[in-house]
């Protein structure tokens, strides 16, 4: 397992220069825009997630999976290593991205709002990983890219639709019921949903890998 993790980290080093450029662009946006903190950390988290999941492409390059599957590890361990790498790198990117965001925040209330938003973004990233990784394992790179773009489009449409629905339901009994829940209760519910999605995703990914032929 440790060998698989080291392999993925070495593969990530290949794109380290590109990643620094992406980080620099995000930093510029952060300090140019008045309210760019949430966008910046969301940008860094989801870019990191996409890059780490992309290591599967490097594994498949020039029939590399044929060689990897001869090494002394199970397909289940391969799947778990992908989740650990993606989660670890994304979490690290989120923590590092918090630093400039917190430095820009000028009041306690702004920093509190920023931290809450960061937590929500991290949970959404976990759910996104639960959807993206099985999809990437099942399909070739071309199909997975198309599906990923479609998935992102669906997420934006759902977000826009949800915002519109909240505006239309303002003052309704359903919205009043939601407002009765404390922030920590909503956070726990979101974490539970993410954990369930991740558990299902791992099992699906393991099944995909077991059925694959190399």
The CA-CA distance between the termini, in Å, is: 20 Å
Tell me roughly what share of residues is in helical segments.
over 70%
- Give a short account of the largest sheet: none
How many individual helices?
A: 10
Q: How do the SSEs run, as a string of H and E?
A: HHHHHHHHHH
Average pLDDT confidence is 76
Q: Which percent range describes the beta-strand content?
A: under 5%
Structural class: mainly alpha
Protein name: ABC-2 transporter permease
Organism: Blautia intestinihominis
Keywords: Membrane, Transmembrane, Transmembrane helix
Pfam families: ABC2_membrane_5 (PF13346)
Characterise this structure.
It is a single chain. With 214 residues, this protein is mainly alpha-helical. It has one domain (2-211). The chain is 85% helix and 0% strand. It is built from ten helices and no strands. It has helices at 2-13, 16-32, 37-53, 55-60, 64-68, 75-104, 108-138, 141-168, 173-179, 183-211. Helix 1 packs across helix 6 (75-104). The two termini are 20 Å apart. The model has no long low-confidence stretch (mean pLDDT 76).
């Amino acid at each position: 397992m440790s060998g698989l993790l080291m392999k993925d980290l070495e593969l990530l080093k290949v794109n380290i220069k590109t990643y620094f450029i992406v980080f620099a662009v995000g930093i510029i946006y952060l300090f140019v825009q008045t309210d760019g903190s949430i966008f910046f950390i969301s940008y860094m988290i989801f870019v990191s997630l996409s890059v780490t999941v992309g290591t599967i492409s490097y594994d498949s390059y020039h029939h590399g999976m044929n060689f990897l599957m001869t090494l002394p590890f199970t397909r289940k361990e391969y799947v778990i290593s992908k989740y650990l790498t993606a989660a670890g790198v994304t979490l690290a990117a989120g923590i590092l991205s918090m630093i400039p965001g917190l430095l820009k925040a000028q009041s306690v209330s702004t920093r509190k709002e920023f931290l809450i938003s960061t937590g929500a973004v991290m949970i959404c990233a976990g759910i996104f990983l639960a959807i993206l990784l099985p999809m990437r394992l099942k399909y070739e790179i071309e199909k997975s890219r198309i599906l990923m773009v479609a998935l992102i489009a669906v997420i934006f449409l759902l977000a826009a639709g949800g915002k519109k629905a909240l505006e239309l339901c303002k003052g309704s009994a359903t919205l009043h019921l939601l407002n009765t829940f404390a922030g920590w209760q909503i956070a726990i519910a979101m974490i539970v949903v993410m954990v369930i999605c991740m558990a299902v995703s791992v099992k699906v990914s393991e099944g995909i890998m077991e059925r694959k032929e190399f």
